[in-house]
Structures are given as C-alpha cells and as structure tokens.
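Postdoc handover notes: sequence design on the structure in folder B. Input tokens:
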C-alpha cells in the first residue's frame, strides 16, 4: 500500500455486550484512531509533511 501512497487508519474499542452503546463505542474507537495517528505522525520519519 505504501508504494501506491495509500494510508489506512483504524480505531478499536472493546466493550462488554451488557454495556454496549453503539454511539459511545464509535466515539471511543474514533478517539483511539486519532490518538494512534497523532503518535504515528510525531515520528519525524513518518511525518508526511516533512517529505
């Protein structure tokens, strides 16, 4: 995928079924994805803006 300049981001959140609220689950997964992306781009060699 890198050779074709594609980038993929995912967020994962796990919750017990008896506490499942889909909206909250999606919000938490999105938050996890954004945090992961932020950490990824903090690395200079991974910062696409530095290319």
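Designed sequence:
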């Amino acid at each position: 995928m890198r050779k074709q300049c594609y980038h993929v981001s995912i967020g994962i959140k796990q919750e017990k079924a008896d506490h499942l609220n889909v909206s909250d689950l999606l919000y938490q997964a999105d938050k996890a994805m954004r945090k992961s992306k932020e950490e990824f781009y903090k690395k200079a060699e991974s910062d696409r803006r530095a290319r």
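Context for whoever picks this up: The first helix runs from residue 22 to 42. Don't rerun without checking with the PI first.
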